[in-house]
Amino acid sequence: RYAYNLLRGSGIPRERCAVILARDCPYAGEFQGFRIFRTGVDITAHPRSDLFEQFLLPWLCWRHGYRSLVSFEGRVPVSHPGIRTYPIIYDMTFAQKKDSHSLKYRFFLGLHARLSRWFASRILTISETVRRDLAAAGRLSHSGVANFPPGGRNATANATAEPLSQVILLAERRRAWTPP
């Protein structure tokens, strides 16, 4: 639902957006009218998914004329010429509570948070608390981090729980999108 709300709240016409969904994603119906690219890559399987996002996502955007990319897994391609990138970071638990995640998962979450700090056009968070935690941990200015909550003015009344790992790309053709 968060991905759908972000797409809807952006105000970009559906025909100018695309999403990448897992082949077996049960939520494809939520994205009618958007261009859908299917993938067999399990985006939770590191490092294979990292290679997918580092190389294939920028190529896909370039190939199809998309200028903005939102990663719902908090990742940003290091090289993305001409493409504005917006990784979403949901919480900082991996950095604040060492026993909350496995060592491997903490490593990848920390790596992508650092890459986002260095290479993202802007980082998106789901709450003001996460925005403050991220800004403090990464010594980022608040202007480099935008808060886009899953509820409120951008949510629909009948929001459902959706695995955010099912949707990893929001892109707009022709002109770059800037989050609110």
How would the blueprint of this fold be written?
Layout: H1 2-10, E1 17-22, E2 35-39, H2 48-64, E3 68-71, E4 84-89, H3 93-96, H4 103-119, E5 123-125, H5 128-138, E6 145-147, E7 171-172
Question: How would you explain this protein's 3D organization?
Answer:
The protein is α/β, with parallel strands linked by helices and 180 residues long. The protein contains 5 helices and 7 strands; from the N terminus they run αββαββααβαββ. It has helices spanning 2-10, 48-64, 93-96, 103-119, 128-138, and strands spanning 17-22, 35-39, 68-71, 84-89, 123-125, 145-147, 171-172. The strands form 2 sheets. The chain has a 4-stranded parallel beta sheet. The radius of gyration is 15 Å and the shape is globular. The model is unreliable at 154-168 (pLDDT under 50).
Overall pLDDT confidence: 75
Strand arrangement within the widest β-sheet reads 3-4-5-6
Element order: H for helix, E for strand: HEEHEEHHEHEE
* Percent range of helical residues: 25-40%
What's the total number of strands?
Answer: 7
pLDDT < 50 stretches: 154-168
Helix run count: 5
Return the structural class. Answer: alpha/beta
Shape: globular
In what range is the share of β-strand residues?
15-25%
Distance between the termini: 18 Å
> If you compute it from the alpha carbons, what radius of gyration comes out, rounded to the nearest whole angstrom?
15 Å
> How would you sum up the major sheet?
4 strands, parallel
